[in-house]
Design goal:
5 helices, nucleus, 0% strand, DNA_Pol-Epsilon_Subunit, single chain, mainly alpha, 149 residues, 2 domains, Histone, subunit A
C-alpha cells in the first residue's frame, strides 16, 4: 500500500512542475516572432521540440532568478511588495542593463494607457454618482417639505 498511487493520479512533484511551466503557445509565439525578425527576409522558422522545451525552461529559470533578485531589492528597501523599480534594479544587478531602457519605455507606455483607461472609468463612476445624487435630490426635497408641514 505504501508508495502506491491511484491510477491516473500524478505525484505532487509533477503537479508542481506543471504549474511552474510557462504556456507553450506563448513561448512558441515569442521565439518564432523573434527568430523571424533576425532570419533573412523574415522567413518562417521551424523549431525542434527539444529546442522549444529548452527555450521554455530557460525562460522559466530566468523569471525565477529575476523574481528572487527583485525580491531581494524589495527586502533591502524594507518593503514587502515588489514594484517595477525593483525589477529594473534587479536586471542591472544581474548584469542585463541592455533590457532596462526598453522595459522602462514599455512600462511608461503601459502606465499611460492604463491611466487613460482608469480616468475613463473614474469619469463614468462620477457620472453615475451624479445621476444617483440628482435622482435622490428631488426625493430629499419632498421629504424636507413633508417634514415642514
Amino acid at each position: 500500500m505504501a508508495g502506491e498511487t491511484v491510477e491516473g493520479a500524478k505525484p505532487a512533484a509533477t503537479a508542481e512542475a506543471e504549474v511552474e511551466e510557462l504556456p507553450k503557445t506563448i513561448v512558441r509565439r515569442l521565439v518564432k516572432d523573434n527568430l523571424a525578425q533576425v532570419a533573412a527576409g523574415g522567413a518562417d522558422v521551424i523549431i525542434n521540440r527539444d529546442a522549444m522545451a529548452a527555450f521554455a525552461e530557460s525562460a522559466r529559470i530566468f523569471i525565477h532568478y529575476l523574481s528572487a533578485t527583485a525580491n531581494d531589492m524589495c527586502k533591502d528597501s524594507k518593503r514587502q511588495t515588489i514594484n517595477a523599480d525593483d525589477v529594473l534594479k534587479a536586471l542591472n544587478e544581474m548584469e542585463f542593463p541592455e533590457f532596462v531602457e526598453p522595459l522602462r519605455i514599455s512600462l511608461q507606455e503601459f502606465r499611460s494607457k492604463h491611466v487613460a483607461g482608469r480616468s475613463e472609468t473614474t469619469q463614468k463612476k462620477a457620472e453615475k454618482r451624479r445621476k444617483i445624487d440628482e435622482e435622490s435630490l428631488p426625493q430629499e426635497q419632498n421629504d424636507a417639505k413633508a417634514d415642514e408641514d
